C-alpha cells in the first residue's frame, strides 16, 4: 500500500513538472495581446470559477477560521504576488530564461525550511547555492549590462522567493483538500491581481487572436486547475524542499518549448549557465548521502 502511494506521488510530481513546462511560454503569448496583470487576473479568475464548480460537484466544504485564512495566505504567496511579478518579467524576458532562474526555488525552499526549523541544514545545500548562483551570474552577465531590465531580473527572483515560502507555509497550515485550497487561493489571488491591473491602468478586454485564446485555455485548464492541484497533492506528501524539485525539470521542458514556439535563442550564456544552475540544485537539494536518507 505504501509503495502504491509513493508511486502515485511520484507520478503526480512528474506530471506537475511536465505540465508546468508550458506555463511560461503561455504567459509570453498572453502578454503579446493582453496587459500583464489583466492577463493574470483573467487566468486565475477563470480558474477559480472552474475550481469552485468542481468543489460543488464533489460536495467539498468551504474552509473556515484558520483553514480559510491559511488558504488565502497560500493563494497570495503561490499565485497572487509571484505571478504578478512573473507576468511583468515575461514581457521582457524569454520563458526559458525565466524558468531557469526559477530553478533556484528548491534551494531557496530548503534554506527557508531550515530557517523556520522544518528541515535540517546540509552542507551540500551551501555548495549547491554557490553553483546555482554562478549559473545565474553567467546567464545575466549581458542582461545586467542593459539587454534585460534589472527590475525584470529582480521580479523573477521575487517570484522564486514567494514560491519557496508558499511551499514551506503549506506544511504549517491545517490540511485542506487540494481542490479547495487552490479554489480559495486562486480566488484571493485574482482579487489582488485585478486590483493591481486597475491600478496599473490595464485595458480590460478579451483576446482576439486564436493563439492568445489557446494560450489562455492552456493556462486555465492545465497550467492552473490541473497543475496546482497536482502540486499541492505532492506538497502534502513530501517535504517542502523535495516537492520543490519540480523546478529542476521545468526549465528543460520550457527551453525546448520556447525555442520551438517562441523562437527563443539558445545563446552561449544560456547554454553555459543552465547546467551550472541545474547542477547546483541537484547537489544542494536532490543529492542526499545515505545517512541523510536514514535520518529522514
Notes on the structure:
This is EamA domain-containing protein. InterPro entries: AA-Vitamin_Transporters, EamA_dom, EmrE-like. It comes from Streptomyces showdoensis. Helix 1 packs antiparallel against helix 10 (210-235), helix 2 (23-31) packs across helix 5 and helix 3 (36-58) packs across helix 10. The protein has one domain. The chain is mostly helical and 296 residues long. The protein contains 14 helices and no strands.
Helix and strand arrangement:
Blueprint: H1 2-20, H2 23-31, H3 36-58, H4 65-89, H5 95-102, H6 105-115, H7 123-139, H8 150-170, H9 178-200, H10 210-235, H11 240-243, H12 246-261, H13 268-286, H14 290-295
Helix pairs in contact: 1-10, 1-12, 2-5, 2-10, 3-4, 3-9, 3-10, 4-8, 4-9, 5-12, 6-8, 6-13, 7-13, 9-10
Q: In a nutshell, what does this entry contain?
A:
Helix content is 77%, strand content 0%. By secondary structure, the chain is an all-alpha fold. Helix 3 (36-58) runs antiparallel to helix 9 (178-200), helix 3 (36-58) crosses helix 10 (210-235) and helix 7 runs antiparallel to helix 13.
Feature tags:
single chain; 296 residues; mainly alpha; 14 helices; globular
Helix content: over 70%
Structural class: mainly alpha
Biggest sheet overview: none
Shape: globular
What's the total number of strands?
0
Q: Overall pLDDT, averaged?
A: 84
Please tally the helical runs, counting DSSP H or I stretches of 4 or more residues.
Answer: 14
Low-confidence stretches: none
Amino- and carboxy-terminal Cα gap: 20 Å
Strand percentage: under 5%
Q: Could you spell the SSE succession in H and E letters?
A: HHHHHHHHHHHHHH
Overall radius of gyration: 18 Å
Structural domain count: 1
Amino acid at each position: 500500500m505504501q509503495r502504491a502511494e509513493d508511486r502515485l506521488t511520484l507520478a503526480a510530481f512528474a506530471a506537475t513538472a511536465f505540465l508546468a513546462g508550458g506555463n511560461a511560454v503561455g504567459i509570453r503569448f498572453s502578454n503579446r495581446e493582453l496587459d500583464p496583470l489583466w492577463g493574470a487576473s483573467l487566468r486565475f479568475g477563470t480558474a477559480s470559477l472552474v475550481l469552485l464548480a468542481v468543489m460543488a460537484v464533489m460536495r467539498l466544504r468551504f474552509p473556515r477560521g484558520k483553514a480559510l485564512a491559511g488558504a488565502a495566505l497560500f493563494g497570495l504567496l503561490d499565485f497572487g504576488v509571484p505571478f504578478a511579478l512573473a507576468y511583468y518579467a515575461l514581457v521582457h524576458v524569454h520563458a526559458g530564461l525565466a524558468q531557469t532562474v526559477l530553478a533556484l526555488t528548491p534551494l531557496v525552499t530548503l534554506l527557508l525550511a531550515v530557517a523556520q526549523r522544518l528541515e535540517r541544514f546540509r552542507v551540500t545545500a551551501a555548495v549547491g547555492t554557490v553553483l546555482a548562483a554562478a549559473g545565474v551570474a553567467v546567464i545575466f552577465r549581458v542582461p545586467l549590462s542593459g539587454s534585460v531590465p534589472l527590475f525584470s531580473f529582480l521580479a523573477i527572483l521575487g517570484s522564486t522567493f514567494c514560491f519557496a515560502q508558499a511551499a514551506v507555509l503549506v506544511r504549517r497550515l491545517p490540511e485542506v483538500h487540494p481542490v479547495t485550497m487552490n479554489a480559495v487561493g486562486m480566488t484571493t489571488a485574482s482579487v489582488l491581481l485585478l486590483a493591481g491591473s486597475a491600478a496599473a491602468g490595464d485595458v480590460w478586454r478579451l483576446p482576439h487572436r486564436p493563439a492568445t485564446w489557446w494560450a489562455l485555455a492552456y493556462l486555465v485548464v492545465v497550467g492552473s486547475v490541473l497543475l496546482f492541484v497536482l502540486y499541492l497533492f505532492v506538497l502534502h506528501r513530501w517535504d517542502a524542499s523535495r516537492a520543490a524539485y519540480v523546478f529542476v525539470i521545468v526549465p528543460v521542458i520550457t527551453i525546448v518549448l520556447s525555442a520551438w514556439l517562441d523562437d527563443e535563442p539558445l545563446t552561449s550564456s544560456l547554454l553555459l549557465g543552465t547546467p551550472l544552475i541545474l547542477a547546483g540544485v541537484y547537489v544542494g537539494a536532490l543529492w542526499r548521502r545515505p545517512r541523510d536518507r536514514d535520518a529522514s
